[in-house]
Write a structure and sequence with these properties.
Length: 223
């Protein structure tokens, strides 16, 4: 399931992130690309050990933890990887698929990828995130502070930046629910559950729906 998560970061959090990134040192992005993606990855990213980068990452992970849409649609077991990337003029990330396994020796699986946009669309030209599907492709350039979550299984690319600077945080999640269609069914049911509660309160129907969701979680979750 591909979906947008608006306003992951509040305005003051976005300002904090931006000012930290202004002080952070960026290095060549090829260092964290898979061997087959290195030739097409032309960007920069904050070094993993950088303290400003660590502060930013903690802030983003906390913002995603409290985001109900992200939590119910992705069901994260762990956000195991997060990169803070910068694309200057001429930089791009050519067509690739994300590594299935990440995290060094820990071998976390990437089920869902996300890009949190940190630059306003008016600050740069080009730099669209393009997601491919079987018969078309779709470009995305979201508001600063909003995120696009998409299946890690997809082929995608970042178009060359032709003006300005594109800052993003890119992350990867291992979900508690491995199968994407199971995850989508749980999301739909949870959406109905919340909606029926808001409209009618704790009815017998609400209780049955809650029971089914809980039992599907017992069936599908890989702890
Ligand atoms: Ni990617």
């Amino acid at each position: 399931m591909l979906f947008q998560v608006p306003n992951v970061l509040a305005a003051d959090e976005l300002n904090q992130v931006r000012s930290h990134l202004e002080q952070a040192k960026f290095i060549d992005g090829k260092l964290t690309a898979g061997w087959y993606a290195k030739p097409v990855k032309r960007n920069q990213q904050v070094q993993a050990s950088n303290s400003a980068g660590q502060t930013v990452k903690s802030l983003i992970i906390e913002a995603l933890r409290r985001n109900t849409l992200f939590q119910t649609a992705v069901r994260p077991r762990r956000i195991h990887s997060l990169l803070l990337s910068r694309y200057d003029i001429g930089m791009e990330y050519g067509r690739h698929t994300d590594n299935a396994l990440m995290g060094g020796d820990a071998f976390w699986r990437s089920d869902v990828s996300f890009t949190l946009f940190l630059s306003d669309p008016s600050e740069y030209e080009g730099g669209e995130l393009v997601i491919e599907s079987a018969d078309n492709e779709q470009p995305y350039k979201l508001e600063a502070g909003s995120a696009l979550a998409y299946p890690s299984t997809s082929l995608h690319r970042v178009n060359p930046v032709t003006k300005g600077i594109r800052l993003v945080a890119a992350g990867w999640v291992q979900s508690l629910v491995r199968d994407a269609s199971d995850r989508e069914m749980l999301f739909d049911l949870e959406t109905v559950r919340r909606s029926t509660f808001a409209q009618h309160g704790k009815t017998p129907e609400f209780d049955l729906l809650s029971k089914s969701i809980a039992n599907l979680l017992r069936k599908w979750v890989e702890p």
